[in-house]
Amino acid sequence: MATKDVNDGPRKGQQDFSTLDDDFIRVLEDLVDALLSNGTLRLTDLPPQALEKLNRRKQVRERLRNSLDLLPDDDGLI
Asked: Rounded to the nearest 5 degrees, what angle is found at the Cα of 69, between the Cα atoms of 19 and 78?
């Protein structure tokens, strides 16, 4: 008789969906950026709430990127 792994329960499934959701959200952000870049979509086409959420995510990502920038770009090392 096989024993059930603790990580196979409902909590593990919720974690899996959460990870998939995070990945899917990033794909959607990239898709919106691509559609904006090629002119298929305009910012004015988006509902205000969606535009606000996209802008907040971009701001947070930019802050994170800046906080992880450990080496200055002008150091001439590479």
From this structure: 120
Q: What is the pTM of this model?
A: 0.62
pLDDT tens digits, 1-11: 445 554 567 78
Helix axes 48-67, 10-37, angle to 10 degrees: 100
Q: What are phi and psi of 2, to 5 degrees?
A: -80, 140
Q: Give the C-alpha distances (Å, rounded to integers) separating 10 from 1, 7, 35.
A: 21, 8, 37
Q: Which two three-digit tokens encode residue 14?
A: 């919720």
Q: Which of 19, 46, 41, 21 is nearest to 31 (CA)?
A: 41
